Amino acid sequence: MRMRARPSKAMWTTIILYGAGLAVGALALQWLEYSYLARVYPVAIYVGLVALAFTALGIWLGARLFRRPATKGLPFDGNPQAVASLGVSTRELEVLGLIAAGQSNKQIAASLAVSPNTVKTHVGRLYDKLDVSRRTEAVMRARELGLIR
Questions:
Q1: Nearest C-alpha neighbor of 82 from the set 11, 148, 14
Q2: How remote is the C-alpha of 89 from its chain's centroid?
Q3: pTM for the full model?
Q4: 74 vs 8: which has the higher pLDDT
Q5: What is the pLDDT of residues 96-148, one digit of tens each?
Q6: Are 92 and 100 in contact (CB under 8 A)?
Q7: Which residues contact 134 (CB under 8 A, 6 or more apart)?
Q8: What is the extent of the structural domain holding 97?
Q9: Are residues 90 and 139 both part of a single domain?
Q10: How many C-beta atoms lie closer than 10 Å to residue 12's C-beta?
């Protein structure tokens, strides 16, 4: 087996110089193209720059004005009065939270280590207590009452 020789310092210098030369050439060509386009389409370029500035401003303002308060790390105790008045059990609150997370009955059963029929029973009781007929309605109603985030 024949071993290849490592490139010498002079070879690396040549490679770097060629690369730098190509980069400078590409930059010059891009500048010439920009100069041409700036003379031919000045209004379009300025309109585009203004649109870009307003887009950035809109994103920044939207992020500042509609920022949600930081709730990470803070304990969520829900609405104990609503829980007591509706008679929702701790297990039903767990099921409700998993429904809000988008889990199916089988997934909820697996994560709580119960049978799918038990989950169906909990879901049915939640529907009765929240006076709803669908999962999405149950989640919306629970959020209105402050039972879940």
A1: 148
A2: 32
A3: 0.51
A4: 8
A5: 999 999 999 999 999 999 999 999 999 999 999 999 999 999 999 998 888 88
A6: no
A7: none
A8: 80-145
A9: yes
A10: 11
